[in-house]
Structures are given as C-alpha cells and as structure tokens.
Amino acid sequence: MKRLIRENSLSLCFLLLFLAALAGQSVAGAAAFNAEQAANGGSPVGWAEYVTSSSFAVDVAENWQSEYLQFFLYILITVWLVQRGSPESKKPGEEGLETDAEQKVGRYAEPGSPAWAAAPGWRRAVYSHSLGIAMGLIFLLSWLAQSVAGLAAYNTEQLAQLEDTVGWGGYVASPDFWNRTLQNWQSEFLAVASMVLLSIFLRQRGSPQSKKVGDPHAKTASSG
Where does the signal sequence lie (predicted)? Predict the structure, then answer.
C-alpha cells in the first residue's frame, strides 16, 4: 500500500486538493447564496439542497470546461507551435506529428508498448490521438453541463423577477452565458502563456516542469 501511494502520490495529492476545494466551494457558495436570498427576502436553503441546485452546478461546470479547454488546446497546439527556451515546448524544428519510429508505433513498437500502438488501422489512429480526444470530449460535456445548469439558474432568476424565461438556444446566445464562459477562458489562456514564457527565464529546482537550474535560457524542451 505504501508503494502504491508513493508511486501515485502526484495524482492522489491533486485529487485530494480537488475534493477539499470542492467541499470548500460548496460551503462558501451556500453561505453566499443564502446571504443573497436574505437580501432579496427569500428563504435560506440547506447545504444538501444547495449542492444539488443549478446554481452550484453551473459554478462547478463553468470552471471544469475552461480547464479542459486549456489542456485540449495546449495538447494540440504544442504539436505544431514551439517556444524557444521553454521546457513546455518541443525544440524548434521538431514541429509536427513525428515519424512512426520516433513515436514507437506500428512495426517500431517495443515489447512494453500499449497494444493499440502496434495495432494496424483505426485502432492505432485513435490511440495516437486519444489524449486530445479525451480532453476534447470532457470539455464538450462540461460545456454542455454548464449551459444546461446555467439555463436553469438563469430561468429561476427570471421567474423570481416575474420576467420571461428563455430556451436553451436563447441562453447559449445570451450575454450571461458568454460572460460566465469568457471570464474563465481568458484567465486560463493567460496562465498558460505565463507558464510558457516565465519557464524560459525562471527555474524550480527538481520540477519536471522546469529546466535544470543551470540550463541556458535558450535551451528548449528540457526537464529538471
């Protein structure tokens, strides 16, 4: 068990941080929701009722979709674009999908390679892009969940103000939806750009996301 935890400590750590942050968000969100209810003359709700509400669901989903969009785009864009000096980039001149020999697929697969890496036809093609496909699908599902939960929350507010409700298409085209969406996207894109650029000149000793402390600034695709 100790070995299992040690060998999977990175993913376990972030899963625990995720659960702790989600729990904290649910408590703080319920308090904020009830404060708003009190200010508007509404009745407070319990924690369980809040975490199963559209208000909580849309807040969670809009963050998930922006995170997975960030990873999806970064995975795809870094196939073709490079940043000289960044460990987050391939080396200039190595842009593209690379050869079968470099990727160890087909007849170049090694004994320990995944079975689909050596498989012919569509299985190898799908597995060769499976990470991007998975991230893209999770993004789309999260985006859909945000739109549905956001629609429910928006219409609840409309009814409380004795105004007309809207359909899914109307909500997805509304300023409310795109305000929620774009405020998350811009922060994710800025964070990625900052990581790419700052990692050229700054270091974190021992981190695989950083170059070695003594590496030249111009060295690209290096890990410490």
Answer: 1-23
